[in-house]
Amino acid sequence: MYDLCDKPPSDERRNFLRLATASAGALLLSGALPNASANPTPTPLTVLNPAQALARLMEGNKRYVADVTKRRDLMVERDTLLNSQHPFAAVLACADSRIAPEYVFDSGLGELFSVRVAGNFVTDEVLASLEYAITELGSLLILVLGHERCGAVAAGIKAVNHNTTFPGKIQGLADAIKPSVSKVLHAPGNLLDNAIEQNVRDTVARLKSESRLLANALAAEKLSIVGAIYRLHSGAVDLIA
């Protein structure tokens, strides 16, 4: 059988290939064809106010729940952030390994300022970190993110109901959450769920009242502080405060 692949290319075919190669190169230089090096460096979308920052977070969560998250070039993102960062939002989340704010809100590097502590409650260090995000980095939103089946809140319940003591510094964590537990101890419904939500609400209230820097940003409408619960099964984030 005659194999076309073995036939030497004719002068006509050579000329065609040269022309095709030259045309593709011209299109590439003009931007008509896609090229990784020609793509603009990704930068955070412009966020003008706290409401837009919250909307952007929730839109990202919808993508996460639907499993249609954005594809990202992490190498380019790293290079973009070498000299500065401008996270549009700060997230105070529990340290639970099942929750990662960057995944939950489908955010890239440099977009979120994440502060994490078991039980997502306020300490001096947490407050200082959030003040830094708002006053120095220009973040427009603080979202306090609790989650279902929180072990830290469960420890607070044991401390209230059974006077359970815990080893090391864990006792201090349980003690910090006890006030929220006590507020809902006799409320209808599931105690753990109620305490988790109350802990988020109390944390939001403390952030609004215990920091002059945050209070000033709130008064100037340059900041919003909200609370939410992460649903472990669905991945959805529900705003509650």
TrEMBL record:
Keywords: Lyase, Metal-binding, Signal, Zinc
Pfam family, one: Pro_CA
Residues given in the record as Zn(2+) binding sites: 94, 96, 147, 150
Domain of life: Bacteria
EC code(s) of this entry: 4.2.1.1
Cofactor descriptive note: Binds 1 zinc ion per subunit.
Keyword Metal-binding listed: yes
GO biological process, alphabetically ordered: carbon utilization
GO MF entries: carbonate dehydratase activity; zinc ion binding
SUPFAM superfamilies: beta-carbonic anhydrase, cab
Annotated signal sequence range: 1-38
Reaction(s) this enzyme catalyzes, per UniProt: hydrogencarbonate + H(+) = CO2 + H2O
Family: Belongs to the beta-class carbonic anhydrase family.
Biological function: Catalyzes the reversible hydration of carbon dioxide to form bicarbonate. Reversible hydration of carbon dioxide.
UniProt-listed PANTHER family: CARBONIC ANHYDRASE, CARBONIC ANHYDRASE 2
Protein name: Carbonic anhydrase
Species whose genome carries this gene: Pseudomonas poae
